[in-house]
Amino acid sequence: MKPKDLLNFYIKTDLLPLLEPLGFKYAKSTLKFSRKTGPFSLSLSFCISQYSSQDECIFWTMWDVSSNEYGKWYEQTWGTQLANNVVVASADWNIPNWLEGNEEHFTLYNKKSDKKEFSKFVQNVINIGIPHYEQIIDWNTAAEMALNEEDVFYERVCDFYLMANEKKKAKDVLTYGLERATDENYEDLKQRMDKYFKEN
Prior knowledge:
With 200 residues, the protein is of the alpha+beta class. The chain contains seven helices and six strands. It comes from Priestia aryabhattai.
């Protein structure tokens, strides 16, 4: 069985029936689940390793929370569009408490053992992944989670705090980010400091 077909089989039989009642929609062509809650959209996308082969599917998931509201706010504030509306994003192995060992992927072999392997994955999705991202209920919690990501984008965290009407936190996080900035992201942070806090 081709890797994508093997994975799709287990998604349709063992995961879709659990996620649909939770409001998730599944796009079979892109192997992606998504759900909108208020201003936030939670997505989990399946990635198949290039080292997969016939009857062997090595996979993991990428998770993200995005918001069109952020895109609109940014456009109104800056007069230009964002490249994306992502609030937070992570590979599944960076989600706190994901998996037990040091594994960074799951593997299906088109054998009976697949049922146990995929069940382990499903438990992680239901009990760890979804509850983790459900903590984002407003722009304050979005900023807090973005601050705890593997890669922190201080300019976006600042924006989220401003959207939450937390001006002091926004300035503090921007100051902190500027102190640690690389040449690559210094300009974005400096522009925000000048625009948002020049008079303060």
